[in-house]
Amino acid sequence: MSQVRTYTRPMAGWWRKNPYFVKYMIREASAPLFYAYALWLLAGLVALARGEAAYNTWRSASSHPLSILLHAVVVVFAIYHTWTWFRVLPKTTPDIDVQPRVLVAAGVAVAVVCCAALFAFAWWATR
Amino acid sequence: MTESVRTIAIECLRYNPETDEAPHYQTYDVPFTDDMSVLEGLQYIKDELDGSLTFRWSCRMAICGSCGSMVNGVPQLSCHTFLRNYYPGKVRIEPLNHFPILRDLAIDQTDFVRNKLPAIKPYLIAKEDKTLAQGEFLQTPGEMHKYYHYSECINCLLCYAACPQYGLNPEFAGPAAIALMHRYNADSRDAGRAERMQLGNSDEGVWGCTLVGYCSEVCPKGVDPAHAINQNKVASTVDYFLRFLTPHGGK
User: What pTM, to 2 d.p., does this model score?
Assistant: First the structure.
């Protein structure tokens, strides 16, 4: 059989062509922010291990406007990740007879309750 | 009932492998009524305006899976979407994304039909064969329920057109093939899981998926390939770690 000539379209810019893919790419591309945030927390832990002076330096660095900006951005994307990951939760569970939207709602509810509990504890511990 | 006839612009991607270096677009003004599908719009063009326009179709009722195309950038069965939904805007029809274009709206499905589908062994592999005299392999309704909706795939390839991972890496087995793999693995009469998961557990199998999830959004039959793939990631992970914990590597 003779080879038929075909045309294959390039993939360049694929994610900009569909809002669904844009949302997906925001999710994927913002993931390194959490890596950076985890490193920041790790630095805090190391500072704590080194003693009071190091820890106080880390704390004052944490209250620098740039650090506060990083924290604000991370919070926004953390909320976005929480929402998008619970939205795909029904795709990862075994086949169970529970409506996907019930699973999503349950996941989001657990996340909200955990956050509220954590905030309450932090407020109680630091007041 | 009086039907009002309106006119909509249908922009088709055109590609003739004998004369064209690259595809271009051609617009046709098509009169339509409220009950006309996008496929019927294409058929009007072919019958009345331009007999050279090439596209595939067969059943006109979302069963055969032949008429998949990109309708305004979204993978759709063209028989399953209506011109009225796009009016007064125009409709842009392109061949399914991520597949080589043979001519106009017709894609080359060879990779799926010849490579992807056979690789996942889409048939029952029984533990031991039975003769006719020994009777059939029985199954309860509950056992059938476990795989039934995965068996409703019509191979229309909309999910491949929705999957950027397949577009970026054509080695990826892709949504429909893995959904079908899961369909047979989940069948109580089947014993071929270990054979299929050689591919299923690989980078070209479930791990080629990054859970974009669009495949399940566009599936016209509610097969939910993203679910089939991602629950197998859990199974694949368990399978991987069990080999360290069980005697003889879980064999």
Answer: 0.90
